[in-house]
Write a structure and sequence with these properties.
This protein has two domains: about 1-95, no CATH class; about 100-205, Hotdog Thioesterase (Thiol Ester Dehydrase, Chain A, Roll). The protein is built from three helices and nine strands. The protein has helices at about 15-40, 45-60, 125-145; strands spanning about 5-10, 70-75, 80, 100, 110-115, 150-160, 165-175, 180-190, 190-200. The strands form two sheets. It has a six-stranded antiparallel sheet, with helices on one face. A hairpin with a 5-residue loop joins strand 4 and strand 5. The N and C termini lie close together (about 10 Å).
């Protein structure tokens, strides 16, 4: 049984790579625009002018677009892409984005720098953002690129506030029981762990 968010497309891997390389810099620029929008102190006239230009650019990009969710797409060469993903989406300016590295010993880790767009308490990463990043890395760890998994439960312990700036996420599988995969993870800054997490990830029946 297939699942509607996973879409097969006969697009050669070379073309997927080309499109990703084309659109990634655009997402980077929009990410900079978000940060600049938060930080700017320009005068009212300039704000109105910039808004008009941004609205015009949005209209140009909407001239042709996908309907519905971007989903996860894959081709016959086992290349997948999830450009709209809120954590790793290469075309999503909301995403940091993370690049998750999977080591042979089972450890998954990722590093990124979180700026003003991810702030909760002053100078600190929003707790929900930390949870989102951990949830994604833990889910990717649970799947091990060989199965589909979805979050069943996620328990967080906020050891201390996570300052804006560089962060590192680490994750590994603790054990497995049937369709349940138990994962433990942390997020931290250069001074050590700031959040601890454990979660249960479920392999759906339709994927078994």
């Amino acid at each position: 049984m297939s699942h509607p968010v996973f879409v097969h497309e006969d697009v050669p891997t070379a073309e997927v790579d080309r499109l990703e390389a084309l659109h990634r810099p655009l997402a980077d620029s929009v990410r900079e625009l978000v940060d600049a929008t938060i930080r700017t102190t320009v005068d009212d006239e300039e704000v109105h002018a910039v808004r008009a230009e941004v609205d015009a650019l949005v209209a140009r990009l909407r001239a042709r677009q996908l309907d519905g969710p971007a989903g996860v797409r894959y081709n016959s060469e086992a290349r997948s892409w999830s450009w709209g993903n809120a954590v790793v989406g290469q075309r999503n300016a909301v995403a940091p984005p993370l690049r998750v590295v999977h080591e042979p010993d089972g450890l998954a880790h990722a590093e990124t720098v979180l700026g003003a767009a991810y702030e909760g308490p002053p100078g600190m990463v929003h707790g929900g953002v930390a949870a989102m990043l951990l949830d994604h890395v833990m889910g990717e760890t649970a799947s091990a690129f060989k199965r589909v998994t979805f979050t069943g439960t996620l328990t967080m312990r906020y050891v201390r506030s996570t300052p804006l700036g560089p962060v590192r996420i680490e994750s590994r599988i603790a054990r497995e029981e049937g369709r349940k995969v138990f994962v433990v993870a942390t997020i931290g800054d250069p001074d050590g762990v700031t959040v601890e997490a454990d979660g249960v990830f479920i392999v759906p029946r339709w994927a078994t």
